[in-house]
Amino acid sequence: NISLQVHLEKADHDINYYIPSEDFSGLAVIDWEYWRPQWARNWNTKDIYRQKSKNLISKTQRNVSAADIEYLAKATFEKSAKAFMKETIELGIKSRPKGLWGYYLYPDCYNYNVYAPNYTGSCPKEEVLRNNELSWLWNSSAALYPSVIVRKSPRCSENILRFSQFRVHESMRISTMTSRDYALPVFVYTRLGYRDEPLLFLSKQDLISTVGESAALGAAGFVVWGDMNLTSSKVNCTKVKRFVSSDFGRYIVNVSRAAEVCSHHLCRNNGRCVRKVWKAPHYLHLNPASYHIEASEGGEFTVKGEASDTDLALLAERFSCHCYQGYDGADCRGMKTADGSSGVSSFSASLIILCLLVSAGSQHIQ
């Protein structure tokens, strides 16, 4: 139980400390994981917030039933939680209006039971409905930051694909639900390695199932997150450099260039390519028969080649355009009228393409 005003004063101090430039225009991510704004989602260790809320009601309300205490505690908690989260992000946007403000892990899909028999990856229906109830949060956000950080699956990579696919698809659904006339940009969190083994780096197939899947579904970019273990020793740093300079870096460059080619060909650089059929196994990958990716000794990559007519025809068959704000039409060549309703985001096409590269400069406010 804490004063909202005291919290906002601390948040204002943190914003000025961690993001000193008033002209900041990068990713501004609020890491808010101790409790969730919806009563029903505060399970397991987070249940203490429900218990404390009921205790507070019990002290102020005499001769009321347990059911009434539960009802009042839930209503009070959710009202206060909404105020804390909504006013915090509004403060961030007011202080640094060019920043892409959002909460880490929002929206969530709660499809974590990857070891369950017959795992489908789908978001439970009740969680989809709960996400719908958070319209106030999506309307307050400037970007969405879901996560496809995965554990190593002992069965097969198919579960990792399903896990990632539904999580990003749910975020893309939420991105269109706001009162704005454009879809919020979605930046997907991932890691170089697995959640339970950070220095066991993602396999090539799991890179496709996380990064590749996210790009094909319409993500604006990626945030590659890691803890201090990755840089705790020279040996670990060398392992990270080797992976980034080989499989990971090569794949990021592949997907980034393929996204640029598709945007240029289908959307006149005024939109992002998105799968026509969201579950289809079609990816934004360069055709190895048309392109060659060369690595330098310094770990940088150069792409040589150009798309063939067949490559471009396949892109047109498999992908469609999600136009950026201000543009309209199947190929995004039209200028949207003032009262139009299409569009993807409020920032430029050039920035979106840039953000398809690894986003390592995001700011976290805790």
Automatic annotation (TrEMBL):
Keyword list, A-Z: Disulfide bond, Glycosidase, Hydrolase
Catalytic activity: Random hydrolysis of (1->4)-linkages between N-acetyl-beta-D-glucosamine and D-glucuronate residues in hyaluronate
Keyword set includes Transport: no
Keyword Magnesium: no
GO molecular function: hyalurononglucosaminidase activity
Matches recorded under InterPro entries: Aldolase_TIM, GH, Hyaluronidase
Any Pfam family matching the protein: Glyco_hydro_56
Positions of disulphide bridges: 109-123, 262-273, 267-321, 323-332
EC number(s) stated in the UniProt entry for this protein: 3.2.1.35
GO cellular component terms, semicolon-separated: cytoplasmic vesicle
Family: Belongs to the glycosyl hydrolase 56 family.
Full protein name: Hyaluronidase
